[in-house]
Predict the 3D structure of the following.
Amino acid sequence: MHAAQLAEEFPVVAMDSDALDAARLLAEHRLPGILAIGRDGLPEAVLPAYQVVRFIIPRYVQDDPALAGVLDESMCDKAVKRLRGKKVRDVIPEKYSDVPAARPDDTIIEVAAIMARHRSPIVAVLEGKKLLGVITASRLLEASLPD
Amino acid sequence: MHAAQLAEEFPVVAMDSDALDAARLLAEHRLPGILAIGRDGLPEAVLPAYQVVRFIIPRYVQDDPALAGVLDESMCDKAVKRLRGKKVRDVIPEKYSDVPAARPDDTIIEVAAIMARHRSPIVAVLEGKKLLGVITASRLLEASLPD
C-alpha cells in the first residue's frame, strides 16, 4: 500500500480566505486539521485543529492562561469576532508553513515517519506540483492494522 | 456555554489494554486522539493520533527518518506487529501523562486555553474524580462560531 492509494479527498482552505472559514470547515466536518493552499493550488501550511482553536483566544490569555478565568460569558462569546476580516495567512504561525508532504509511492512507514516528525494529524500527498489528496492519522492506522 | 455542556461521550482505552486496541479505536472512529484511563476510571494520558502512528514506526526509523525509504513492502506490513503484546502504558511517552483537563464550569475560552497549552486535540472534562466526557477541538470551534 502506497501514499497514492491512502490519499483521500479532503476539504482545503485558501490562504486568502477568511480565517472564520477555516474554523467553520474544521467544525462542520470534524476534521483533525486543515490544509491551507496558495493561489497556485499547492499546500502552503497544515493547521492542526488545536492551532485553529488558538485563534479564538485573546492574545493576553495566550500569554497568561490564568486570565481565561476572569473573562465573563459575553467576553467569551465575542472572542470569535476577533477572527472576522482576518485571512488564513494572517493567523498562521511561521512554523506551520513547513508542509508535511508525501510522494505518491511512499510506503505506510514513510508516511508515518513524516507525520510523526511534523507532529501533524494530516499529510499532503503531492505528485510533483499536483495535490493528490490528504492522509489522516486515523486513515494511516486503519491501513496498517491487521484484519 | 460551559465545559459540561460541551462534553461528549468518547471512546476511551484502558492503560492496561492492548496497544493495538488504541490504534483500532482511533482508526474505526476516525478520532483525533484518545484518552487512556487507569484502573480507577480516571484519565491518565491523552494520545494525539500522530503519537499513536509513531508506535508503528520501528525505533531506528524514528531515530533516522531517511531509513524509512529503504524498508520494503513486507517490512512495512510487519511493522504493526511490534504493537502486539504491548500495553497502552508501555508505549506512552512520559510527557503525555499530563492530562489536559477542564472543570465542568470552565468557559469556552478556558477550555481553548487548556487545549492550546497542551497542543492537544481533546480535553477531558472532570467533575472531581468523575470523567464527564471529552471536548474535541472541532466541537469547541463549532460552539464558538457565530451562527
Observations:
- Chain A has a mean pLDDT of 85.
- The CA atoms of residues 61 and 133 of chain A lie 36 Å apart.
- Chain A has eight helices and six strands.
- The helical segments of chain A are 3-6, 19-29, 49-55, 59-63, 73-79, 88-91, 108-118, 137-144.
